[in-house]
Amino acid sequence: MKIVITGGAGFIGSNLVHALTEQPQVARLRVVDNLSTGDKANLAGLDVEFLEGDVQDAVLLNRAFRGADAVVHLAALPSVPRSLRNPLASHHANATGTLQVLEAARRADGPHVIAASSSSVYGANLHLPKHEDLASAPMSPYAVTKLTTEAYLSAYHHSFDLPVLSFRFFNVYGPGQCADHAYAAVIPKWISAALTGRPVTIHGDGTQTRDFTYVGTVCEVLTDAVLRRVVEPRPVNLAFGTRISLLDLIPEIETATGRVVRQEHVPARMGDVPHSQADSSRLRTLFPTVAPVALEEGVPATVDWLRASVISAVPSWGGA
Ligand code: NAD
Question: What is 173-210+242-277+293-312's CATH topology?
Answer without folding.
Answer: UDP-galactose 4-epimerase; domain 1 (3.90.25)
